Amino acid sequence: MRSVEDYLHDLRSKGFQLGEDAVGFVYFGKHYTDASDEVVNAAIELTLKAQKTFDGSFYVSLLETFTSNKINTRKEAMNFVKEKQLLAI
Fold first, then answer.
1. Residue 89 lies in a domain
2. Cys-Cys link to 63, which of 16, 33, 37, 89 (CB 3.0-4.6 A)?
3. How far, in Å, CA of 78 to CA of 85, rounded?
4. Among 58, 57, 39, which residue's Cα sits nearest to residue 49?
5. What's the confidence (pLDDT) of residue 89?
6. How many domains are there within the chain?
7. What is the pTM of this model?
8. Which of 59, 54, 72, 5 is nearest to 32 (CA)?
9. Which residues of the chain are modeled with pLDDT < 70?
């Protein structure tokens, strides 16, 4: 499992430049929801796929949805959004 910091570094290396405000939202959401790095990374990935950019409020809402539904892994997160048809990805 990659840490959030490693995941953000990988995104930067692929050309996704998240500003300081976006990175702040990432860590705010992580601490606010007490989500694991794996679930945070999945929420970042899904936010970028759905919004084509980083939308902090969308990301935090997605994290809240995952934690309230006891989603603990990337696979569970991906299955959840598909089953619930939350995102068109």
1. no
2. 33
3. 10
4. 58
5. 61
6. 1
7. 0.92
8. 59
9. 88-89
